[in-house]
Amino acid sequence: MKRFLIFLFFVFPFFVSAQEEFTVYFESNKHDLSKKQIALLNDWMIGNKESKVVAINGFTDEDGTNAHNDTLSQRRVDFIYNVIVKNHIKIRGDFKTRSFGEEHNQSKIKSENRKVVIHYILAKDLAREEEILGIKPVQSVVAEVVPIEEEDMHFPANATLEEKVALAKPGTRIVIKNIFFYQNSFGMMPTSKPAMDELIDVMLKNSTMVIEVQGHICCVDADRRNLSLERAKQVRRVLESNGVDQKRVKVKGFGISHPKFPIPEANEEQALANRRVEIMILSK
């Protein structure tokens, strides 16, 4: 869990005091809220229609294994995210999620550790949003590139990602295999660690390379929740939290518009090919 989980701890910069917090609490081993906590969350949403969420952090108590608690805290974050999106609360495009599991300063009262904290900026402070988040304006210009499908590059059989990138031209799309997400969620499964480690290594070794992370989904007639884009953003968050400059990683969600096989798919193999994350090299 070494490198991959770094993003769970150091993902967001320190904020100045204009950032607000709201906390909801969960019952033991639950990722959804009780009626009482749902009511509190509803009250918060009613009072913050014009506020903007910038981060959502999930926590658990110390019961259970580290792996179980990491997954549980991520599912709590996903639950809150889905509720606030459904209620049209504003969310910053590059908002951050952190799943601390049990790795945080534990209260002696277990129930206080089972929580999600929403960080947000009030409507009256949004004019100073970039200042509050400590973000300096960055201008980067990437020349227009012509997409090249991976199959057309004729990479050697069993070539590693690093080898493919070395041979690739600007515009080349490369499928990043074995990045898995929880169903109907942008939450990345722990089994994605080896693939993400490989991508992180390639981005750090090729320090000037700029890519676009492209998300695709399968099995539905439309990407109504823009899940393909949210998954691409999650890949960018992991890269950024592991030392890759955000300006080097663009994101795009294609939904079902670029399937490898016709939808509905004939089998799970075709669905898996359609449900993918690719990178397109914009410049090297």
UniProtKB/TrEMBL annotation:
<dbReference type="GO" id="GO:0009279">
    <property type="term" value="C:cell outer membrane"/>
</dbReference>
<dbReference type="InterPro" id="IPR006664">
    <property type="entry name" value="OMP_bac"/>
</dbReference>
<feature type="domain" description="OmpA-like">
    <location>
        <begin position="168"/>
        <end position="284"/>
    </location>
</feature>
<keyword id="KW-0998">Cell outer membrane</keyword>
<dbReference type="Pfam" id="PF00691">
    <property type="entry name" value="OmpA"/>
</dbReference>
<feature type="signal peptide">
    <location>
        <begin position="1"/>
        <end position="18"/>
    </location>
</feature>
<keyword id="KW-0732">Signal</keyword>
<protein>
    <recommendedName>
        <fullName>OmpA-like domain-containing protein</fullName>
    </recommendedName>
</protein>
<dbReference type="InterPro" id="IPR036737">
    <property type="entry name" value="OmpA-like_sf"/>
</dbReference>
<keyword id="KW-0472">Membrane</keyword>
<dbReference type="InterPro" id="IPR006665">
    <property type="entry name" value="OmpA-like"/>
</dbReference>
<dbReference type="InterPro" id="IPR050330">
    <property type="entry name" value="Bact_OuterMem_StrucFunc"/>
</dbReference>
<feature type="domain" description="OmpA-like">
    <location>
        <begin position="13"/>
        <end position="124"/>
    </location>
</feature>
